[in-house]
Structures are given as C-alpha cells and as structure tokens.
Design brief:
By secondary structure, the protein is an alpha/beta fold. The protein contains 7 helices and 9 strands. The protein has a single domain, classed as DHBP synthase (Alpha-Beta Complex), CATH 3.90.870.10. Helices cover 31% and strands 19% of the residues. Strands 7-1-2-6-3-5-4-8-9 form a 9-stranded mixed beta sheet, sandwiched between helices. α4 packs across α7. The model has no long low-confidence stretch (mean pLDDT 92).
Length: 208
C-alpha cells in the first residue's frame, strides 16, 4: 500500500505532485485522486489509473478561490460572484472558459471548466496551499463507488499513487455539480448539498 502522510510530511505530497505523480487527498466529501493540473502528461496518467474516458472533464481544484482566479482569469466577474456564494464547500461548479484554458481537463466542452474549492482537512489544505491548483477526481475506478475511507480505494489506484493523505472516514457523498454557464444555474448532479439549497444560495448572492 502507498505511504500514509503525516501532517509533518506534507512536503512529500507536494514533491510527488511536482514530479507529475498521482496523490490521494481527502476532501469534504470523498477521497480524491489528484495530479498537477498545469501540464497534460500527469492528466493522462490520472485517466489511465482511473480508467476514465478522456471525453469526461476533470475538475480544477484549489484550496482557495483566488488560486482558481489566477489560473483562469476569465472567471472574474459574474462567475466569481456566484462561486464565492458557494465556495469553499461541497460543490463542483461548471464555469465559462472562453479562452479554452486547460484543454486536457475540459473533455468535450473546452468552452467550460469545472472548478472546486473543498472545505479541506488541514493536511490536504496544506498540500494545496503549497502546490497550487490540481486536477482531481474521486479516487475510484471510473463508475465505481465513491471512497469514504482509504480502505475503500481500489488497490490498483492505491499502489499507483505516489502518496496518500489519510484523514479517516469522510462523508462519502460526492459534491453537488452545478452548471453556471447558462442564463440560469442548472444542477447537473445532486450530491452532498440538496439542489434547492444550492440554488437558493446562488439566488441570494446575485440578487440586486
């Protein structure tokens, strides 16, 4: 099994990400498999390990919204207002990507990008604070159950990861996915937060 990182060993996880390897981190929902988001080759490695089709987008994940705004400057404005109403939290937001940045993350919709700012456990937050944005998806084989514990992660993914941060049992329900690229927000997947609650927060944030 891959090593479990103690809080004082955050540097090991950061080093693994910088070398293009996959790392398993806890979030506020499930365990995630993540890699350097800034280069294409690590994304291909993640997709192979997860057996995930390249057509399906992978979220850009950071410890704070400002990191995402630096990575995708076009998110500033209305998209950022809506994002700030929900983040950090158990949401994945699909936002406009007019410059078509990070084509290796966007699947068949290069004009959009999925972003996430989880309410992270301290060790995972320290990793992302030190590294920056990562590409992250649930640490399972594509189509498999979402892992609430390290023990739930398939052995093939555990063995392929360069580092694992174990924060014990997580809630186990994936994030709620909301598309904010249209005239009205659309819930694509109801997960950790009920759709009406999420839409109410957005409406309150954008009310004039």
């Amino acid at each position: 099994m891959a090593p479990v990182i103690a809080p004082q060993s955050v540097d090991s996880a950061v080093a693994a990400l910088r070398s293009g390897q996959t790392v398993i981190l806890p979030t506020d929902t499930v365990y995630g498999l993540c890699v350097d988001a800034y280069h294409e080759a690590p994304i291909r490695r993640l997709l192979r390990q997860k057996k995930r089709p390249i057509e399906i987008p992978v979220a850009l994940v950071a410890s704070g919204l400002d990191v995402l705004l630096d990575a995708v400057p076009e998110l500033r404005g209305r998209a950022a207002v809506m994002a700030r109403a929900l983040l950090p939290g158990p949401y994945t937001l699909v936002l406009p990507n007019p410059a078509r940045r990070y084509r290796w993350l966007t699947g068949t919709r290069p004009e959009t990008i999925g972003v996430r700012v989880p309410d992270l456990p301290s060790e995972a937050k320290a990793v992302l604070d030190a590294f920056g944005a990562v590409a992250m998806t649930s640490a399972n084989v594509h189509g498999g159950p979402d892992p609430a514990r390290v023990e739930d992660i398939p052995e093939s993914i555990l063995h392929a990861a360069a580092a694992v941060v174990d924060s014990g049992e997580l809630p186990g329900t994936p994030s709620t996915v909301i598309d904010l690229t249209g005239t009205e927000p659309e819930v694509l997947r109801e997960g950790a937060v009920p759709a009406p609650d999420a839409l109410a927060k957005i409406a309150a944030a954008t009310a004039v």
